[in-house]
């Protein structure tokens, strides 16, 4: 009578809240330390690296503050194929893959609630 | 004391899993990538099946997926007419290569510098990843959609299988056709083993083995059901196959004898591959799952634990033993 092979546990499934690639995993830390492409160059001057990192932090902070400031404001999205739409901005998801908007004015009507795929967006403007 | 195979089910995909590939053995173990019709290919730890991350960006079913040898890069082929290259450590999309039709197959050269793609536009394309804006080299010849395209013979040649019922060997430098194999029916899968230069081709209920350099037939084996994919063990003692009857079959390569068959999947098996160390094989199915199977059933490896008879006595498993166990560690 055959016994099934015992198993320590089942394989871990995907995390519903993130796309994974844990930045704290040994592999990530070892291989991704300089995920900044220009700094991955052989002659990475530590001074230059620091400046670049600082610049990136500033830009990132500005972008995040921009997203915060946009909340509940009317935003115009310029998208591919000459699509320009206006909507009231709600929020972005954590990986900035989607924007949640309300009252999206489209050529075929007003969508009360919608998700705009951020990779489809070229630029967006709003009055602060 | 016979042990029964316990497959490990990797869930997460919501549509059929159509392709899977292992990386080579890296200092962090080996990895597995799965292509799924849900458009979200996933990276997993190869020996446990633990999910590591999902590559997000494709807008259509992903038909093909591959990893480079050290699992630092991944490439995917999708129905959104693009092939994408990804950083397999961070999960970020690195390149998106536009095609004129559905892309079915992607394959890196050994040095990861070039990517070969093949798809429904019937062309083989070679991209130099260090010059992503440069136009790819194109090889025309197939008269129908290409299902699988691979580098072989130290990346000096290319093998392609298409719906035109042919498998063709090309010289990658001259881009000329070297040899063609014609079949009565479309080939369902192709696997290339660099070590030993063996090509594994499946069509109908047949698993055929060819010399990858000469395309001479080595042997064919008939399975009980139509086969969608097969894989030869790195040591060439076994091969496994799966297909439309949902089962996984294990055969002895030298004797062609069917050794085992395993039930488990709830739909046709679309792809099956041995891990680089040969200790397990992974199968992807229409049922949306990947399953990991042990080559040596009962051995301690990954999440499988060999339990000795004495150990079993301490757990609540009174139904297991009716006689003295004869096997000792």
UniProtKB/TrEMBL annotation, chain A:
Q: Which residues form the SUZ-C domain?
A: 1-25
Please state what the protein is called.
Gem (nuclear organelle) associated protein 7
Which BP terms in the Gene Ontology apply to this protein?
Answer: spliceosomal snRNP assembly
Q: What would be one Gene Ontology cellular-component term for the protein?
A: SMN-Sm protein complex
Instruction: Tell me where on the tree of life, at the top rank, the source sits.
Output: Eukaryota
Could you tell me which residues belong to the region Disordered?
Answer: 1-23
Automatic annotation (TrEMBL), chain B:
One matching Pfam family? WD40
List the GO terms this entry assigns under cellular component, sorted alphabetically.
SMN complex
**Which UniProt keyword terms apply here?**
mRNA processing, mRNA splicing, Repeat, WD repeat
Q: Does the keyword Repeat apply?
A: yes
* Protein name stated in the entry: Serine-threonine kinase receptor-associated protein
Q: Which parts of the chain are WD repeats?
A: 55-96, 96-137, 139-180, 262-294
Gene Ontology annotations of biological process type: negative regulation of transforming growth factor beta receptor signaling pathway; spliceosomal snRNP assembly
Q: Which family does it belong to?
A: Belongs to the WD repeat STRAP family.
MF GO annotations: RNA binding
Cross-referenced Gene3D superfamilies:
YVTN repeat-like/Quinoprotein amine dehydrogenase
Q: Which InterPro entries match?
A: WD40/YVTN_repeat-like_dom_sf, WD40_PAC1, WD40_repeat_CS, WD40_repeat_dom_sf, WD40_rpt
Q: Tell me the PROSITE patterns matching this sequence.
A: WD_REPEATS_1 (PS00678), WD_REPEATS_2 (PS50082), WD_REPEATS_REGION (PS50294)
């Amino acid at each position: 009578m055959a016994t099934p092979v015992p198993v320590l546990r089942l394989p871990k499934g995907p995390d519903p809240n993130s796309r994974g690639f844990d930045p704290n995993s040994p592999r990530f830390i070892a291989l991704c330390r300089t995920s900044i492409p220009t700094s991955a160059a052989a002659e990475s001057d530590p001074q230059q690296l620091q400046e670049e990192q600082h610049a990136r932090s500033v830009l990132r902070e500005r972008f995040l503050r921009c997203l915060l400031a946009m909340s509940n404001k009317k935003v115009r999205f310029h998208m591919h194929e000459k699509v320009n739409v206006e909507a009231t901005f709600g929020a972005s998801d954590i990986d900035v893959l989607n924007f949640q908007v309300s009252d999206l004015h489209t050529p075929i009507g007003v969508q009360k609630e919608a998700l705009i795929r951020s990779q489809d967006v070229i630029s967006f403007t709003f009055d602060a | 004391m016979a042990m029964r195979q316990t497959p490990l089910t990797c869930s997460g995909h919501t549509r059929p899993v159509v392709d899977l590939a292992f990386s080579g053995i890296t200092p962090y173990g080996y990895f597995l990538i799965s292509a799924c019709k849900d458009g979200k290919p996933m990276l997993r730890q190869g020996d446990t099946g633990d999910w590591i991350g999902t590559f997000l960006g494709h807008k259509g079913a992903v038909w093909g997926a591959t990893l480079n040898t050290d699992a630092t890069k991944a490439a995917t082929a999708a129905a959104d007419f693009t092939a994408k290259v990804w950083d397999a450590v961070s999960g970020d999309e690195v390149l998106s290569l536009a095609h004129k039709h559905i892309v079915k197959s992607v394959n890196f050269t050994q040095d990861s510098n070039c990517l070969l793609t093949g798809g429904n536009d019937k062309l083989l394309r070679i991209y130099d990843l260090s010059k992503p804006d440069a136009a790819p080299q194109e090889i025309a010849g197939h008269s129908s959609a290409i299902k699988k395209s691979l580098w072989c013979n130290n990346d000096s040649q290319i093998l392609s299988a298409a719906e035109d019922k042919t498998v063709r060997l090309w010289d990658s430098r001259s881009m000329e056709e070297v040899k063609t194999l014609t079949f009565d029916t479309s080939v369902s899968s192709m696997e290339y083993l660099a070590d030993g230069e063996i090509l594994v081709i499946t069509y109908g209920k047949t698993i055929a083995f060819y010399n990858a350099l000469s395309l001479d037939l080595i042997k064919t084996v008939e399975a009980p059901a139509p086969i969608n994919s097969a894989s030869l063990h790195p040591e060439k003692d076994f091969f496994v196959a799966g297909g439309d009857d949902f089962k996984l079959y294990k055969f002895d390569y030298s004797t062609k004898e069917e050794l085992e068959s395993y039930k488990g999947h709830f739909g046709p098996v679309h792809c099956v591959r041995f891990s680089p160390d040969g200790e397990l094989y992974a199968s992807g199915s229409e049922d949306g799952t990947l399953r990991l199977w042990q080559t040596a059933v009962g051995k301690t490896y990954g999440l499988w634990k060999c339990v000795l008879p004495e150990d079993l006595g301490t757990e609540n498993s009174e139904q297991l033993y009716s006689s003295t166990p004869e096997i000792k560690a």
